[in-house]
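Support request from a user on the community tier.

User writes: "When I paste my structure tokens into the form, the page sometimes reloads and wipes my input. The last time it worked, I copied everything first. Here is what I submitted, just in case something in the input itself triggers the reload:"
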């Protein structure tokens, strides 16, 4: 019995849905990481993402106007998204970011799409989700890639100008993460449409969690097609199919809503029982029956890298801006809380991860902008960027403490905090994405021979044994090469290569090379020892996926520092860069050790350690000094910090504006504040009961002059406003405090 025959009995074949998922998408930078040789030349050759003149004008015009219109507190205390917001989104074509100009759309880049969604999300999660869905997985994108010319000509202009609002229904009560198991079905039959008997489908469906469904005018629908009477002349089970059905079509049920954590975007159900639709309703026409899963996976693979990662980035930037400004102006025990090391530890983590988030956002959308659809990279972006968003938001909540939990117009964190779990669950729940998708797809997509080998194992061709042996020889050679490289870099880490022109970057290039070389060996041994069981060993495969993910994150951090940080801002950015890159590399190394510690074969575990010389943690560490340095940098009003929080656009009177005014007022009078505090230490003046009294004492004692006094009083007034929280009457009606107390005493005029 040949080896191929033996393996055929052991290894499961690739299912149709798995094969379609593997075929739908491109291999990009993650391929070089998996194979143990991160390609930094390809990284530096990526086309830099920049906003076009039209895209910048849209941000400066309609987006800015929208931000001023949004009252998130009002939205969250209402039942519906305000009608004037919806009408504005339609009029300004917010639903047409991906639709070509020839159909009346804006045709923006993935980078611009991400920037727009992320900017809106800093103000309102509900409005951001409303904008993002039509520009992500949905009828618009499916029509662009797969629709007939007639479907495109009819629907795309209507979607572009808002006459039609789309939704796409995939998830069923019985099929969530296992989208391929949807029970909804369409039976090929003949029926009446527009007074004529035509060939079509009798469709029955029950869907939930469908965003925009309650207000949609056109329904995208995924279901399985069956042809029991052989009307199409082929097999009975034809596979998943996508159709586009007007809401007005008889039998379509839309309108019932869910209530997702009280975030007021429209999300709900759609149902239909034996609804007859003509073949013309199928996206792409009758010939696309059964191609629905391939269509969905292809489109989702790209869209997954834009919208939800943008929500994660917006969360990080809001957290960084809010926490750093609050830490600078909020004082306890006579010190700004940002000077306490407990706060600094949290603040540094927020700042470093915000840098990592923005780096990953930029690199991922740059890849998509090149026309690629890297399904593994977008899964990495979706999982890790939403999880990082959750991490930093938790830290920001800790820093703002009581201010963070009192909802109202001045709270900058509450809406994002409540909405964050939504990003974790949609477009593939995060547990599924990490444990099954990242490495599960990566191992088949990124290994140079594995997919071909599996296909040859299950092949019925006469020369299958010969082809298998040929591939096997290549695979063995590939694995031996991986082993030699990993041993060399493990025993002699200085031999790793680094080509950056910046000395501070080279160490991280070398570290990424060392980690990836070990990953390649461990992946090979996992396949050799566990074989098809690796698919069920989710804890192990997830850790290998984490290595891929965090090496990709480190590469993104390096690219951002080299490409997006100007030479004059590099010193300001350095603390952020070092923390972010070291965090990513440390997490990758931690995942490698957890993988080894838990590998089921003791002999294989010992061999892998020796083969890669992996006995200790070697990655550059995050020291306490680094934490203190970054926390201090995060509290400074620098050009780079503004760059890293660019998605946050304060509008007059909102929470961000109130915080920023107090923060900038303090930054403008630091020297005067130092004078006052120095005089207090020397007992030249007495501390007042309030800070305002202390300023009066300092002015009377000529410690500060009149100009300094006025600036300090202005700062104190803005500080008091920034640290207060919204309050309500007994029936929770917001009290509008229009009578601000003027802290400027008559001393100035004495």
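"...and here is what came back when it finally went through:"
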């Amino acid at each position: 019995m040949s080896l191929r025959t033996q393996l055929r009995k052991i290894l499961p074949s690739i299912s149709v849905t798995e094969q379609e998922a593997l075929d739908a998408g491109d291999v990009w930078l993650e391929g070089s990481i998996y194979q143990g040789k991160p390609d930094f030349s390809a990284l530096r050759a990526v086309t830099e993402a920049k906003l076009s003149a039209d895209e910048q004008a849209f941000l400066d015009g309609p987006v800015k106007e929208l931000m001023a219109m949004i009252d998130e507190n009002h939205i969250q205390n209402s039942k519906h998204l305000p009608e004037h917001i919806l009408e504005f989104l339609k009029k300004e074509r917010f639903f047409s970011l991906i639709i070509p100009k020839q159909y009346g759309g804006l045709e923006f880049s993935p980078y611009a799409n991400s920037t727009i969604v992320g900017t809106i999300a800093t103000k309102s999660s509900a409005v951001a989700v409303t904008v993002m869905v039509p520009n992500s997985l949905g009828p618009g994108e499916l029509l662009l890639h797969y629709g007939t010319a007639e479907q495109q000509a009819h629907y795309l202009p209507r979607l572009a100008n808002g006459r039609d609002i789309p939704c796409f229904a995939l998830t069923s009560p019985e099929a969530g993460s296992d989208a391929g198991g949807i029970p909804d079905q369409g039976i090929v039959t003949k029926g009446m449409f527009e007074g004529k008997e035509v060939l079509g489908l009798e469709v029955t469906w029950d869907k939930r969690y469908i965003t925009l469904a309650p207000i949609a005018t056109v329904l995208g629908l995924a279901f399985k097609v069956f042809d029991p009477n052989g009307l199409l002349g082929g097999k009975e089970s034809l596979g998943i199919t996508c159709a586009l059905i007007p809401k007005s079509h008889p039998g379509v049920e839309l309108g019932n809503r869910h209530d997702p954590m009280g975030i007021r975007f429209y999300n709900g159900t759609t149902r239909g029982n034996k609804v007859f639709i003509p073949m013309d309703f199928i996206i792409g026409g009758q010939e696309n029956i059964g191609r629905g899963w391939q269509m969905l996976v292809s489109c989702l693979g790209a869209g997954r890298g834009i919208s939800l990662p943008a929500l994660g980035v917006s969360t990080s930037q809001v957290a960084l801006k809010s926490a750093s400004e609050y830490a600078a102006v909020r004082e306890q025990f006579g010190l700004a809380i940002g000077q306490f090391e407990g706060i600094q530890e949290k603040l540094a983590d927020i700042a470093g991860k915000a840098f990592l988030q923005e780096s990953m956002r930029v690199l991922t959308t740059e890849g998509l902008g090149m026309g690629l659809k890297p399904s593994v990279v977008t899964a990495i972006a979706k999982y890790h960027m939403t999880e990082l968003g959750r991490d930093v938001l938790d830290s920001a909540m800790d820093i703002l403490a009581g201010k963070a939990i009192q909802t109202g117009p001045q709270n900058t964190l509450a809406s994002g905090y409540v909405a964050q779990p939504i990003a974790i669950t949609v477009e593939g729940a995060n547990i599924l994405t990490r444990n099954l998708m990242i490495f599960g797809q990566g191992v088949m997509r990124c290994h140079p021979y594995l997919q071909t080998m599996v296909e040859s194992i299950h092949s019925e061709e006469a020369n299958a044994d010969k082809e298998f042996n040929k591939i096997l020889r290549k695979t063995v050679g590939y694995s031996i090469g991986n082993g030699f490289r990993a041993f060399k870099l493990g025993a002699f880490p200085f031999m790793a290569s680094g080509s950056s022109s910046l000395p501070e970057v080279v160490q991280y290039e070398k570290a990424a090379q060392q980690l990836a070389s070990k990953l390649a060996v461990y992946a090979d041994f996992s396949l050799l020892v566990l074989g098809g069981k690796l698919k069920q060993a989710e804890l192990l495969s997830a850790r290998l996926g984490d290595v891929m993910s965090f090496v990709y994150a480190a590469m993104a951090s390096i690219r951002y520092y080299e490409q997006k940080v100007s030479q004059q801002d590099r010193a300001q950015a350095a603390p952020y860069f070092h923390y972010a890159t070291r965090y990513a590399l440390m997490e990758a190394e931690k995942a490698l050790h957890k993988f080894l510690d838990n590998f089921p074969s003791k002999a294989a575990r010992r061999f892998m350690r020796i083969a890669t010389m992996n006995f200790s943690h070697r990655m550059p560490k995050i020291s306490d000094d680094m934490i203190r340095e970054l926390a201090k940098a995060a509290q400074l009003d620098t050009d780079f910090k503004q760059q890293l929080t660019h998605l946050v656009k304060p509008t007059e009177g909102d929470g961000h504006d109130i915080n920023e005014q107090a923060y900038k007022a303090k930054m403008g009078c630091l020297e005067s504040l130092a004078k006052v505090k120095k005089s207090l230490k020397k007992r030249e003046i007495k501390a007042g009961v309030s800070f305002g009294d202390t300023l009066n004492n300092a002015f009377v004692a000529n410690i500060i002059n009149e100009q300094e006094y006025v600036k300090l009083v202005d700062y104190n007034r803005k500080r008091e406003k920034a640290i207060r929280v919204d309050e309500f009457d007994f029936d929770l009606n917001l009290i509008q405090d229009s009578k601000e107390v003027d802290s400027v005493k008559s001393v100035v005029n004495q």
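Agent notes: The reload is a front-end session timeout and is unrelated to the input. The longest strand covers residues 196-211. DSSP finds 30 helices and nine strands in the chain. Escalated to web team.
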